[in-house]
Amino acid sequence: MKTVAVEKANIRQGSLILINRKHPICEKLEPELVPVDSGYPEILLEQKAAAMYAQLIQSLQAGGQIVPVSGYRSLQEQEKIYAESMRENGEDFTRKFVAYPNHSEHQSGLAIDVGENRAEIDFIRPDFPYTGICQAFRQRAAQFGFIERYPKGKEAITGIAHEPWHFRYVGCPHAELMQREQLTLEEYTEYLKDFPYGGKHLHFDAGRHTAEIYYVRESALSSGTIPIPDDTPCEVSGNNVDGFVVTVWRSKK
Predict the structure, then answer these.
(1) Helix 132-140 vs helix 47-60: angle between axes, to the nearest 10 degrees?
(2) Active-site pick, 105, 148, 163, 218
(3) Is residue 163 annotated as a catalytic residue, yes or no?
(4) Among 106, 140, 216, 218, which residue's Cβ finds the most Cβ atoms within 10 Å?
């Protein structure tokens, strides 16, 4: 067994950070951004998220049918969008569909709004129906680490109205687990606490590999390190709440 050194600030970093009205984004977070598509150089995502989005679109051959509408936003951009929506659409609409500045997933570089390719596309609420190529995208998204972040019927949990167009990168196999269990990121963050380092771990069969997942509470870290298995590929993500999620990948023999 070996360890990975972490700092308290690392809780606010990683693909599994929870961002909502109760848990703001870290203002010092500086994701490595790249364009999601050469045809849309102004729309950026975090590097890994962008790569997986491109693979998802390519797997569906959907480049001409699905278009990126909004990716990474700076704090200033989110403030402008929020203020304009308040002015043009009113408080009720804005609170339902536009996150308050520093509480928006778009500031993380891990969220993307997508739309069906039409002559006119609404920037705030692009059309992305549950039919055709859009539904095919939705059904396959989890295989590439994306979830539909604000599903219908979960508004009281997420604090945001149903948004069929908004997808969030959380990585694999977490997206598939969330899809299987029909969990929002809020619910999944709590669910993972049932699998602490010192107890039963969560396992997921990913074909040629298996994923072992466990949670480490930040307050339990006496030495500022997280235990991980020797010589095993792993990822550590903060949850932006109170701890870390460790994902260990093992090859099947």
Answers:
(1) 130
(2) 163
(3) yes
(4) 106
Q: Are the C-beta atoms of 228 and 197 separated by less than 8 Å?
A: no
**Tokens 């549950």 belong to residue:** 130
End-to-end C-alpha distance for the chain, whole angstroms: 20
Model confidence pLDDT, tens digit, residues 94-146: 999 999 999 999 999 999 999 999 999 999 999 999 999 999 999 999 999 99
Question: Tell me: domain 1-16+183-253, CATH 3.40.390.10, correct?
Answer: no
DSSP secondary-structure letter at 53?
H
Give me the amino acid identity at 86. M
> Which class does domain 20-169 fall in?
alpha beta
Single-letter residue type at 152? K
Q: Retrieve residue 146's tokens.
A: 């994306």
pLDDT in tens, 203-246: 999 878 899 999 999 988 867 888 887 778 899 999 999 999 99
